[in-house]
Each structure stands twice: as C-alpha cells, then as structure tokens.
UniProtKB/TrEMBL annotation:
GO terms for molecular function: GTP binding; GTPase activity. Its main location: membrane. This is Ras-related protein RABC2a-like. Transmembrane segments: none annotated. The lineage of its organism: Eukaryota, Viridiplantae, Streptophyta, Embryophyta, Tracheophyta. It is a lipid-anchor. GO terms for biological process: protein transport.
Length: 211
C-alpha cells in the first residue's frame, strides 16, 4: 500500500455506523459538521441522506465513524429500512427551544428506532441541541434526562453553533458502543464484510432512487 492511502486505508481498528435522527431543523447537519470540521455555516436542509466519515481515537482505539445524516421530512421516509440497517449507534436530536421536536422524539422517532433498528444492542443517545439559545429554552435539562432514562439512552446537551459538548457527544457514544461485545465484534468485522457488501448493494446513482 502506498503512503497516499494511509488515511483511508487500514489505518483504523474499528468501524462504526452512527445515525442522526430527529425532526427537520433541529440541527442534525450542523452537529455533524461541527464535529467533522471547525466551521459551521448555515446549512440548507439535507435532501434525503448524506454521510460523513470521521477518524478519531477513543479509548486507545482508532475508530472510523461513518455518520449518516437524514432529512427529517416525511417524503424521504422511504429510505428508512436501509438507513437503519447495521447501525451501532443512533443519536436522537431535538432542539431545546422547540417543544414539538422533543415530543416527536418520543412519538415518532423512538418508535421508528424500535421498528427499523436491526441491532437490538444498538447504543442510543438523546441530544438536546441549541443550548446557546438559553433564553429561548423551553425544554429543561431535567426533562431531557428523564426522557433519556425512559428510552434507555445516554444524554447530552450541546450547541452545534458554539461546539459545546459536540465532540463529547460522539466520543461518549463511541466509548459506550465499544463496551457492548456484539457491537465491538461487528465493528472489527466490518473490514472483512465491506467487499461482500459492495457487490450486494450497489448504491443507486444520484438523483433516482427507485428507477
């Protein structure tokens, strides 16, 4: 292997698939961008599905996180099955300044996770975003913690804008995934499976998904 492929080559120990879900506009894409890079511009809504890869070292292991970002809008819900397949971590995001985004986590998103998640041991994390807008807050930290407990999730409040707690959010999730034997095993088996999968599900060309 040439030195040029150092980054993308086999330079990681474990590979995990992480999903970001929640209503449109809660800041999923900003959260992801804030984690991946140091600048967060105002982003246009995600159309369909987008994913980014982040290499980081957590707990002495080099991890490759493939983080999938989804559009919150209903019309893209057809992607759901394949989107959830094989995810080791799911981040449920709400906006602390919009009560309905919090309620929907319970009414819509948590149910969807139950329905579609293929990993029963999958680690879930509840994230209250936009804490930089403290004066507009309508969902208290206590409520967030209570819901997280009820849904069996980790919990963190953060701000994609100021980047407060953003890295902790992903790192904590990764550490927790690494504590689950079945997920850890999947993460280390991924390299062997990738070639097999490539031939099975060739990604549809951009533009059409069911042509």
């Amino acid at each position: 292997m040439g030195s040029s492929s150092g980054q993308s080559g086999g330079s990681y120990d474990l590979s995990f698939k992480i999903l970001l879900i929640g209503d449109s506009g809660v800041g999923k894409s900003c959260l992801l961008l804030s984690f991946i890079s140091s600048s967060v511009e105002d982003l246009a809504p995600t159309i369909g599905v987008d994913f980014k890869i982040k290499l980081l070292t957590v707990g002495g292991k080099r991890l490759k996180l493939t983080i999938w970002d989804t559009a919150g809008q209903e019309r893209f819900r057809t992607l759901t099955n394949s989107y959830y397949r094989g995810a080791q971590g799911i981040i449920l995001v709400y906006d602390v300044t919009r009560r309905e985004t919090f309620t929907n986590l319970c009414d819509v998103w948590a149910k969807e996770v139950e329905l579609y998640s293929t990993n029963k041991d999958c680690v879930k994390m509840l994230v209250g975003n936009k804490v930089d807008r403290e004066s507009e807050r309508v969902v208290s930290r206590e409520e967030g913690m209570a819901l997280a407990k009820e849904l069996g999730c980790l919990f963190v409040e953060c701000s994609a804008k100021t980047r407060e707690n953003v890295e902790q959010c992903f790192e904590e999730l990764a550490l927790k995934i690494m504590e689950v034997p079945s997920l850890l095993e999947e993460g280390s088996n991924l390299k062997r499976n990738i070639l097999k999968q490539k031939t099975e599900n060739q990604a549809p060309p951009r533009g059409g998904c069911c042509s």
